[in-house]
DNA sequence: AAGACTGACAACCGCTTCTTC
DNA sequence: AGAAGAAGCGGTTGTCAGTCT
C-alpha cells in the first residue's frame, strides 16, 4: 500500500526526528496546512515519508498537544474508559483533550507492567482458616485459565477503580432496575441486608435517580462506578458514585463492582444459566451453573464471605 | 566503573477504514 | 461498483536516560 511503499523509497530517513526536521515540518504545516500528507515531505524539504510526517505532527508537534504527566483525574478517566471500551486508544484519547492515542497507549502499557510486577494487596493477604477452607474447595474447581495474567491485570484494575471500603456496599444486577425478577430480587435482598448490616426487617429500595439506596430511614451511598457497553456499543456516561445497571445476561447477582469482569468471565465460559460473585471484602469468585456442572473462576483470591454465601445459596454447589 | 535492567515515550509496521475518482 | 491511494488505528519495536547490581 501507499505508506509501505513510500517508506521503502531510498533516501527516506527513519528514526528520531532532529530539531531541524521538526522546525521544517512546523514551518510548512503552519503556513500551508497539511492537505495531503504524502506531498508534505517533498514540499517541506524533508527526507521522510508522509506517514512519518503525519505521525510526528499529530503525536508531537501540533500546537494543541498537552504534554507532561497525566493528572490523577486523567488517570482515573483512562482506567474507567479502558474498562468500558478496551484498547480503543483513539476513542479514549478523544475524551482527553490534548492527549494522543499513542501517549495513552504508552501510559497504559507501562502502567500495566508496573501493576503486574507489584504484588497486589489482596493476593498477598494471609487467609484465615475459614478462607483457606473455602479457597481450597474452589481450588479444585479451577478453570484452566484461572489466575491468568489477564485476570491478574483485571484484578489490579478492580482494586484501583473499586477501592471497596468495608462499610459501604456496591452491587449491580443482571437487568435494568425496572426489570428485577422475583428470585433475583430475593437474593439481592438477602445479600443487601447482610452487606449493609441491616436487620432482616429493614426494607430498602433503590432511589429513582439510581445513585442512592434508601434503607430504613437512612440513605446509603454506593461507592461504585459501573460502565456498560454491552448493548449499544456506545460509551455510557461515566459518573463517580453513581450506580448504573449493567446488562449481564442471566448473571444473577454480582456484588463487588466487577460487572464487566463478570461479563467477560461468563462469556468466555459460555455461561448461559446464571452466575454469582460474592465480594464483600474483596472480589473473589464468579460462579455459574451449566448443564448441572458448577463453574467457578477466581477474580482475586480470598473472601471472608464465602461460607455465608455457600450456605445461603447452596445451589452454587 | 561498567554492564544489565527498567521505564518512558517516540517511531515504525501492517492492517483496516475512508475517500476519491 | 470497485480500484487505488490516503488516513487512521493499534500492536510492536527502538531509543535513551536513569537506576541497579
Automatic annotation (TrEMBL):
Keyword Transcription: yes
Protein name per the record: Uncharacterized protein
Presence of keyword Transcription regulation: yes
Assigned keywords, A-Z: DNA-binding, Nucleus, Repeat, Transcription, Transcription regulation
GO molecular function term, any single one: DNA binding
Pfam families the UniProt entry points to: Myb_DNA-binding
One GO CC annotation: nucleus
Chief localisation class: nucleus
Subcellular localization(s) per the UniProt record: Nucleus
Origin organism lineage: Eukaryota, Viridiplantae, Streptophyta, Embryophyta, Tracheophyta
Entries under Gene3D superfamilies matching the protein: Homeodomain-like
Ranges where the Myb-like domain occurs: 9-61, 62-112
Residues annotated as domain HTH myb-type: 9-61, 62-116
Amino acid at each position: 500500500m501507499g505508506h509501505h511503499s513510500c517508506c521503502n523509497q531510498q533516501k527516506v530517513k527513519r528514526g528520531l526526528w532532529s530539531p531541524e526536521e521538526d522546525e521544517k515540518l512546523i514551518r510548512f504545516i503552519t503556513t500551508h496546512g497539511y492537505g495531503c500528507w504524502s506531498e508534505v515531505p517533498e514540499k517541506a524539504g524533508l527526507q521522510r515519508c508522509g506517514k512519518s510526517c503525519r505521525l510526528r505532527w499529530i503525536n508531537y508537534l501540533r500546537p494543541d498537544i498537552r504534554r507532561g504527566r497525566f493528572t490523577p483525574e486523567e488517570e482515573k478517566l483512562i482506567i474507567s474508559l479502558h474498562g468500558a471500551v478496551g484498547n480503543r486508544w483513539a476513542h479514549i484519547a478523544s475524551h482527553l483533550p490534548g492527549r494522543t492515542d499513542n501517549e495513552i497507549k504508552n501510559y497504559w502499557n507501562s502502567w500495566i507492567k508496573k501493576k503486574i510486577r507489584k504484588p497486589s494487596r489482596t493476593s498477598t493477604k494471609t487467609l484465615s482458616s475459614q478462607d483457606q477452607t473455602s479457597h481450597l474447595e474452589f481450588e479444585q474447581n479451577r478453570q484452566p485459565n484461572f489466575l491468568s495474567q489477564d485476570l491478574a491485570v483485571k484484578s489490579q484494575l478492580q482494586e484501583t477503580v473499586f477501592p471497596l471500603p468495608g462499610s459501604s456496599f456496591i452491587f449491580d444486577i443482571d437487568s435494568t432496575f425496572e426489570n428485577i425478577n422475583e428470585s433475583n430480587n430475593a437474593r439481592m435482598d438477602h445479600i443487601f441486608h447482610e452487606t449493609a448490616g441491616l436487620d432482616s426487617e429493614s426494607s430498602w429500595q433503590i432511589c429513582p435517580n439510581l445513585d442512592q439506596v434508601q434503607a430504613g430511614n437512612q440513605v446509603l451511598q454506593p461507592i461504585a462506578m459501573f460502565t456498560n457497553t454491552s448493548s449499544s456499543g456506545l460509551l455510557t456516561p461515566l459518573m463517580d458514585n453513581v450506580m448504573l445497571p449493567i446488562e449481564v445476561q442471566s448473571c444473577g447477582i454480582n456484588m463487588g463492582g466487577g460487572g464487566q469482569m463478570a461479563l467477560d468471565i461468563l462469556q468466555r465460559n459460555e455461561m448461559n444459566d446464571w452466575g454469582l460473585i460474592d465480594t464483600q471484602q474483596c472480589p473473589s469468585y464468579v460462579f455459574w451453573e451449566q448443564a448441572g456442572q458448577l463453574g467457578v473462576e477466581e477474580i482475586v483470591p480470598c473472601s471472608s464471605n464465602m461460607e455465608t454465601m455457600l450456605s445461603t445459596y447452596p445451589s452454587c454447589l
